[in-house]
Write a structure and sequence with these properties.
Layout lengths: L2 H25 L3 E5 L2 E6 L7 E6 L2 E6 L7 E9 L2 H5 L4 E10 L8 E11 L5 E7 L12 E3 L9 E7 L12 E10 L2 E10 L8 E4 L2 E3 L5 E4 L1 E8 L6 E7 L4 E8 L5 E5 L5 E4 L2 E2 L7 E2 L3 E9 L2 E9 L4 E5 L11
Length: 332
């Protein structure tokens, strides 16, 4: 092996060992005073917003999320790493801070805070950093990304960059990281279910979603995909619906509860006179509610008259259809 190659390996090992030593030394104290060159704000107003910034070494990101975090599970940062930082791998660290004093501002550079995590940028030209804000963060670990500990989004997320290796070229301190940030959305949506009973009396019913009982169903979070709703009652007709949930969207569904009384649908040609239990029916477009028991339906169309009897039971719907047809045959 050439002398130059041995020297290079030793130097890289020395640099890496120094970086690790600095990191472990940093962990020894969880709170510290520190100063940043510049604070770069990233403020999301919409859940689908994507923001690109540039950050230098010794700068910090101050990330704030929308007030409504219903569909947000974390933040994704995509770093485009310049060649000199890739060459001098593990020379730059990124650190998460909490309990900052004073409150982060572009006008302030000196802070006191509690460090929650520290890692170095590896020798890759691209790095995805995921910062969860809830335990149902769905993105899994992979070789091309780093998932940091769960953070509280109440005040914001403070991520600082810092040189942690000595003996690096001066040009490295002028390196610029291109960063694209966006919220990570939960793989869920919401169901806004409205149930309207027809009766003014207080009658009970039970709601099931995917065969599971549901007590509160206003803005109910559900996984994306197809779901099944059933409303069961001894006082109303059972109602069944199928609906789809889309990611980070609210699906509205209204169900009008129908009485348990039998219904009769009357289907007949235009100008047909219809009588139910001897009383004329003027609107055949809507089902007619009847009591449980025997009922007579009479159709009169010109000189044609027919009577049918129904044995109605609660919770059932009956269709009475008058078919008037003509046949054609050929005589030899």
């Amino acid at each position: 092996m050439k002398r130059f190659e041995i020297h290079s390996i030793l130097e890289n090992t020395k640099r890496f060992s120094l970086a690790v030593a600095v990191l472990f030394a940093s962990f020894a104290a969880s709170s510290e005073n520190f100063r940043v060159r510049k604070l770069i704000p990233i403020s999301f107003n919409e859940i689908n917003e994507k923001i690109s910034v540039e950050s230098g070494i010794n700068d910090a990101l101050w990330i704030t999320l929308p007030k409504d975090l219903t569909y947000i599970s974390g933040v994704e940062l995509n770093l485009k790493v310049p060649e000199d930082i890739v060459t001098w791998r593990d020379s730059v660290a990124y650190m998460l801070y909490d309990k900052l004093d004073p409150k982060p501002s572009e006008k302030k550079q000196s802070y006191y805070g509690e460090r929650g995590h520290v890692s170095t940028i590896p020798g890759n030209f691209s790095l995805n950093i995921y910062i969860p804000i809830s335990k149902d963060f769905a993105i899994k670990d992979n070789p091309y990304s780093v998932k940091l500990p769960v953070q509280s989004p109440d005040s914001g997320i403070f991520l600082r960059f810092m040189m942690v290796m000595k003996g690096v070229p001066e040009s490295l301190e002028n390196s610029i990281l291109e960063i694209t940030a966006k919220p990570v959305l939960k793989n869920k949506g919401a169901l806004n279910l409205s149930v309207t009973p027809q009766s003014t009396e207080e009658k009970k019913y039970s709601v099931f979603i995917d065969d599971e009982p549901v007590q509160a169903y206003s803005h109910k979070l559900l996984p994306t995909g197809e779901h099944h709703l059933s409303i069961v009652s001894d006082s109303y007709r059972n109602e069944l619906r199928t609906f789809r949930i889309e990611q980070a969207k609210t699906t509205s569904l209204s169900v009008n509860m129908r009485g348990i009384e039998p219904l009769v649908k009357l289907i007949c040609p235009k100008d047909t006179k219809v009588f139910l239990d001897g009383l004329p029916v003027t609107n055949t477009a809507e089902p007619v509610s009847v009591t449980q028991g025997e009922h007579a339906v009479k159709f009169i169309l010109g000189d044609y008259e027919i009577v049918k009897t129904i044995s109605a039971m609660n919770g059932r719907t009956y269709s009475v259809n008058l078919n008037v047809d003509a046949t054609i045959s050929e005589d030899e």
